[in-house]
Write a structure and sequence with these properties.
CATH class: Alpha Beta
Structural class: alpha/beta
Distance between the termini: 6 Å
Helix content: 25-40%
CATH architecture: 3-Layer(aba) Sandwich
Order of helices and strands: HEHHEHEHEHEHEHHEHEH
Shape: globular
Strand content: 5-15%
Largest sheet: 8 strands, parallel
Number of domains: 1
Amino acid sequence: MKLKLPSLVQLSKRCFHSKETLKVGILGVPFDKGQGKKGVADGPSVIRKGGLIERIQEIGSLEIKDYGDISYTIPENLQRETVPNMKEYMHIATCNHELSKRVQQIINDGKLCVTLGGDHSLGIGTVDGHIKAKNENVCVLWVDAHPDLNTNKTSSSGNVHGMPLAILAKELSDYWPYLPGMDWQKPVISLRNIAYIGLRSVDSYERLVIDKLGINAFGMEDIENYGISTVVDMALNKIDPVKDKSIHVSFDIDSLDTLEAPSTGTSVRGGMTLREGIQLMEMIQRTGRLGAMDLVEVNPSIGSEQDVKRTVDAAIHIIAAGLGYSRRGIRPQNTQTLPLQTFPPKIQEI
């Protein structure tokens, strides 16, 4: 029996459909005041130099604009303001105010905002800006070894990179003193719209808050027991059951195991593999609802040259997966230029 197969041109029209162009804005935040280790402010620079733009250009269906790095100046009338047990407080407040405005601008321009950190205290500004741009219709996946849920009264270090979600959450607003210079930011996201993935280093107070308030928290035990695909599905079903929210992914590189990303300030053994991190971001990308993502805590001053390269490479893999880079291969955008003569001849008989 003879079998007539479709031509490769016909097949290409069926399989290699053109994707709608995704507009992406890249924003660097060279900020290190939320913790005590120097070097993390160089994160945006080292990620760019590591080939981020070139890598995501391979995806082919992106329109990319690099907005450069933000800068800020503390207002003169606020330079002496402090808050107990919040180190470098006015730097935190001023930088995040500027960051929130820039994130709003990028999202309102119709772009997916990718923020390069910098330490994780910048999550205050990125989530705030995303929420304001989307009229509060936002859910957050906080991918991290740590919950970042301490207040200034419970933190043992006073480092604000361990506090951003406690500042953002409505349910914890009464646990804060007045924060001068932060009148632009109101706790507008509910903890029921937030889910953690990758937890494995949780302070006792944070554990109490997670349990008492029923926060959606998936630790490494859950990933081991259910697998990363099931965990991501469970998290999204909890925080976005109607599937209508803009998703914000705040990805701390220390969510990956130390062997995968050694150049970070608060690494914890026993974390996700890079493969799991990539799969997580691929799943979020396929929802079509990713509105913003942060990639934070890459510190090129920690570890050897090889350690830094491995960490930067992991960060670029994570970002690329969130923007549509596929491990199955990228489909060609223009099928008319396919070298059809290089394909094997059609099968004539079976």
